[in-house]
Amino acid sequence: MRHMDAIWQILWWVPSFLLCCCFSLIATGHWGWPANGLMALVVCIVIPELLYTVITLIGLLVGTFHPDAIDVSRIIGAVLATIAFVCGLYGVMVGWKRISVTEVSISSRDLPPAFDGYRIAQISDMHLGTFAREPKFVERLAAKVNSLGADIIVFTGDLVNFTSAEAMPFTGCLSSLSAPDGVLSVLGNHDYALYAPVETPDALQKHVDRIISLERKLGWRLLLDENVEIRRGSDSIWIAGVQNIGRQSRSCKGDLKLALRGIPAKAFIILLSHDPAHWVDEVIPSTDIPVTLSGHTHAMQFKIFGWSPSSLISPHWGGHFNEGDQHLFVSTGAGANLPFRFGAWPEIALITLSRPSASECHTD
Hints:
- This protein is α/β, with parallel strands linked by helices.
- The chain has 2 domains: 2-93, no CATH class; 100-363, Purple Acid Phosphatase, chain A, domain 2 (4-Layer Sandwich), CATH 3.60.21.
- It contains 9 helices and 12 strands.
- It has helices at residues 2-27, 32-63, 68-93, 135-147, 171-174, 201-217, 256-260, 277-286, 358-363; strands spanning 100-107, 119-123, 152-155, 183-185, 221-222, 226-232, 235-241, 269-272, 291-294, 319-323, 326-330, 347-354.
- Strands 1-12-2-3-4-5 form a 6-stranded mixed beta sheet, covered by helices on one side.
- The model has no long low-confidence stretch (mean pLDDT 90).
């Protein structure tokens, strides 16, 4: 019996030892499998253990008044810990590679008639470094996007986790993305190598230059505070793209006024802006841009019953929002900083633009 107790005590501390090992390796710049191991340990071991411990502690406190509560709390704790373990295991084994398509309809009375029914396939936050050992996922993602038959494909930033090198193995499948009006993209905060191991400013800028060069070699039209006109006969819409504009000064790179320069007054504009905070902070207060497409949040890669912990940070963590005639769609991302997703599956958004029907116009 004592021998078994000793074994269980050793096993109890094994996850803590492995966590320390993973943290140490990540701190020294080894990201790959240590990050994967860290994520698996946290969601499959640490969180279930923590959940069980909290529930049983509550039971012990209540048990001072109602002794039966101690046994009940242990049962409840064991059940919830088991559920958390199963969800965590699914998230690290399957969830971060389970591609989903979200269909979105955005109606605007200002949309030119020729673009009624115009379809946009949006992908965001690929974080390709996470898929170094899962290249088939990126191939499936590109094939799925192409199969939607959208008029245009847009990518709203964060191609990599740290540096441009992560994207090199995937150039073949990413260059296969194709749509009649092309592939347009913007940069996200991770694309500026802000989280790479400490290097000189010149070295970091080289990483950014490589990302820019790579996206252009893929055949994508990268918008660096620029815009492009899309025409259908005599009608047109404009797609503008800003470099990342966020609430942290080191990741604020864009210039919205520059991105809109040259666009005619009253033109219908679709803005690609990585961080949805930009919509709140500048787009709504100072422009009448009808449609903004963003990403960035990932919904913290966890969603259950329509709720995500990301909602505690921002109300615009995922999905379709509007303020009057101005619309925002926030993609929860196709990739992952760490190899885990539950509920907030890798997302491709298929956005259909339309003009309101006569009855809707009359109601307004």
